[in-house]
């Protein structure tokens, strides 16, 4: 590695000041010894809990994070109003095999997908057609008319980056029901997006096609997806009862929450850092994405603890409604544009509070090269990969305004044990891993505000 | 990174054959899709459980791993007899504050250290003197005579590598009681070696000085260490009752378990890979070190699954008695020397079944340079650091025979949540992380048997 380090120092236009190393050490030491991230996350998870956009939990999270940032004495703390979709689950979700020759009636672990229209209390019954993907559905064509489509494409276990496996399988969840409806299906079941076989169903966003009926769509656990598939292979006339109660209500007023420390030399250049404050309506939204929010706040809190004045303006942002609308991210970018703000970088942590191993980015070649030139400063902290392309959902809408978009990249092995489930609770987060993420983000914000990008 | 890759190809004497890349991909694909490591670990943990050297559990583990390797059809499977120390805990360990003005009698979460002599059923009572380290104990000198010494040095939370923090704190556990005894102390309590504050006591090895009395030595949980320290600062005449029942019995016959696939081109060159089969007598020895044993067996199993014939001899070794004697590692090296065997490399996985991020090594500069030249082959699998110095306890005795000693290096953040505790159970191991470690070890063994070192 020494060779690479040497090369980087030779690149024109890049200087790494000597004191950066010691300031980054100071950040890590403070965070690992007496950081606030973990205890703040505990409060968000245990005292507020889940917080789907438009819910009372989301309102509580908005008010609490505003008060928390005020208590830390940031220069400005404010709310950005934004209208958000308001989906409610409405009742218990049921997926039941009704006529198994082997087992009779079999209850499967189920959770309606977000934004879906429920069956209502009378439910619906139908025969089941299993497919592994949307292309496979399309090949079946008219054969699914009047049936319930069962999407059973597993996440590819051979992908070391679990998000790649997720990317390869999530179309069946996000648009599977819409595609099935086009072909006349009456309902849809999807295998939970998890790389582990267990009994926990995973919800997540589903988008209807407005030109076709809004059929119910529910996820079942991977274990039950395996069971259903086995039973179907033995008994193709299996029938399923579906019941769900989801309803999309009128949009509600909610908020992005913003805290800011003004830059001392170039206050007009802004670096945004944070995560999304909303979560799904199950579990506590600990990894997704309480972790990212608490890490974003911690970045600014450490500046206050050290008495550091950033050269450029740094801003902690809790975006609202990433899960089922992205309205907060869109509104944040719209306001920035209207105000003529100049974001030079935006960092989102929305891949869980796990061990940070790198930063992904989207921007110009020059921006990305400058980011990568900082790799040697992060390696002592096991953050080694600054080459990956990526970013974050909430910061995406800022793209045409020119900032470098950056995602914190934690190791992904365990993310899909928790994602969008009742298991995504505070206890699933490791204190040191969460703190290492907060420290890595603070170190990066520090380099960005010092050096620009 | 591309630049580095390019440089490495230019280094003289190093060639990375094109097909190595695809064979390593094959190893990872097989392991992540249908590896046996996780289910084998389940059996070892759940059906056999903990297995301190000399215990019935250790005997069962020897027999089961022998049968398991035979069932996989390795060329040879055999046992290496070795006499091991036989320590028994003997009963419930008690550390109790007897005279707290605030709380009266307070029971602390305690576990006697391994190899210690117990108090017996009558226990002992004494005043407590707190120190943070052995140097601090030595400064106190005669002041500890007739007292119980309380070692309360925390692991340094700012060390990103938790093993470094462990290294900085473990003298108080391994020789604290011996040093206290030299000064006339009657007993010793040590803060558990953990970087987390919780209620779980951690046992571990303790070495007496044969010239001084064998005083009892017990660990208490970090939480209770904090409590005891606080109470002591308010009430220095606090008294503690200690009770433990440990006893070192006569040495017992046990075994290293070895499975081998003979090399097709250079069978005399041996690559050993594995972990230690014994564990402490609490929990299930899942991370420490069932994981390493099952990963070692998996390396050879994958060769059988693929029908691969290694050029050099590869050997899975389960060493016995790492925890409280290292007799197995010593015996293995002694036998290798007597037989004139030539180990070119020995790999130990004994840092938990967590996400593998690198390999550490000890050997000549040339050996280490060749190992590091393989970094680009591991980076796609997030194994990025092949530079660290290190190895493993059981393979250490081989050092003077010239092999490159290699340790699998998983991320260390969570290791000291489980190490030497009742919490080190199968459920604490993540399937994908364990499998990634097995795949990394197999890939490395593959490169070693193909290319030599």
UniProtKB/TrEMBL annotation, chains A, B:
<feature type="domain" description="Peptidase M28">
    <location>
        <begin position="256"/>
        <end position="440"/>
    </location>
</feature>
<keyword id="KW-0378">Hydrolase</keyword>
<keyword id="KW-0333">Golgi apparatus</keyword>
<keyword id="KW-0482">Metalloprotease</keyword>
<keyword id="KW-0645">Protease</keyword>
<keyword id="KW-0964">Secreted</keyword>
<dbReference type="InterPro" id="IPR039866">
    <property type="entry name" value="CPQ"/>
</dbReference>
<feature type="signal peptide">
    <location>
        <begin position="1"/>
        <end position="17"/>
    </location>
</feature>
<keyword id="KW-0479">Metal-binding</keyword>
<keyword id="KW-0256">Endoplasmic reticulum</keyword>
<keyword id="KW-0862">Zinc</keyword>
<keyword id="KW-0865">Zymogen</keyword>
<dbReference type="InterPro" id="IPR007484">
    <property type="entry name" value="Peptidase_M28"/>
</dbReference>
<comment type="subunit">
    <text>Homodimer. The monomeric form is inactive while the homodimer is active.</text>
</comment>
<keyword id="KW-0121">Carboxypeptidase</keyword>
<protein>
    <recommendedName>
        <fullName>Carboxypeptidase Q</fullName>
    </recommendedName>
</protein>
<keyword id="KW-0732">Signal</keyword>
<dbReference type="Pfam" id="PF04389">
    <property type="entry name" value="Peptidase_M28"/>
</dbReference>
<keyword id="KW-0325">Glycoprotein</keyword>
<keyword id="KW-0458">Lysosome</keyword>
């Amino acid at each position: 590695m020494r060779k690479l380090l040497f090369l980087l120092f030779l690149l024109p236009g890049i200087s790494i000041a000597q004191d950066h190393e010691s300031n980054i050490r100071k950040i890590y030491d403070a965070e690992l010894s007496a950081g606030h991230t973990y205890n703040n996350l505990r409060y968000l998870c245990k005292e507020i809990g889940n917080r789907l956009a438009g819910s009372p939990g989301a309102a509580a999270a908005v008010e609490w994070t505003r008060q928390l940032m005020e208590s830390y004495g940031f220069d400005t703390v404010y709310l950005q109003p934004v209208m958000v979709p308001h989906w409610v689950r409405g009742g218990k979700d049921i997926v039941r095999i009704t006529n198994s020759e082997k087992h009779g009636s079999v209850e499967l672990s189920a959770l309606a997908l977000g934004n879906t229209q429920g069956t209502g209390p009378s439910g619906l019954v139908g025969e089941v057609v299993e497919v592994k993907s949307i292309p496979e559905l399309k090949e079946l064509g008219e054969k699914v008319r009047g049936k319930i489509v069962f999407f059973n494409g597993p996440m590819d276990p051979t992908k070391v980056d679990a998000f790649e496996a997720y990317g390869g399988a999530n179309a069946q969840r996000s648009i599977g029901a819409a595609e099935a409806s086009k072909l006349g299906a009456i309902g849809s079941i999807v295998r939970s997006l998890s790389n582990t076989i267990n009994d926990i169903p995973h919800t997540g966003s589903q988008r209807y096609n407005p030109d076709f009926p809004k059929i119910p769509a529910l996820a079942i656990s991977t274990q039950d997806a395996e069971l259903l598939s086995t039973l179907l292979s033995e008994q193709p006339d299996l029938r399923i009862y579906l019941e769900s109660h989801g309803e999309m209500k009128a949009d509600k007023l909610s908020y992005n929450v913003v805290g800011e420390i003004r830059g001392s030399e170039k206050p007009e250049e802004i670096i945004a850092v944070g995560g999304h404050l909303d979560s799904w309506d199950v579990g506590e939204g600990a990894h997704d994405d309480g972790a990212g929010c608490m890490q974003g706040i911690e970045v600014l809190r450490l500046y206050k603890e050290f008495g550091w004045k950033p050269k450029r303006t740094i801003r902690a942002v809790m975006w609202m409604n990433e899960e089922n609308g992205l309205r907060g991210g869109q509104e944040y970018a719209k306001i920035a544009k209207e105000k003529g703000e100049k974001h030079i970088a935006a960092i989102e942590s929305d891949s869980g509070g796990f061990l940070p191993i790198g930063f992904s980015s989207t921007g110009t070649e020059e921006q990305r090269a400058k980011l990568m030139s900082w790799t040697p400063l992060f390696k002592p902290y096991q953050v080694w990969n600054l080459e990956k392309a990526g970013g974050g959902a909430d910061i995406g809408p800022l793209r045409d305004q020119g900032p470098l978009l950056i995602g914190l990249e934690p190791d992904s092995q365990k993310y899909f044990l928790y994602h969008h489930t009742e298991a995504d609770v505070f206890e699933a987060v490791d204190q040191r891993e969460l703190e290492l993420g907060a420290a890595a983000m603070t170190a990066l914000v520090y380099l960005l505000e010092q050096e620009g990008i």
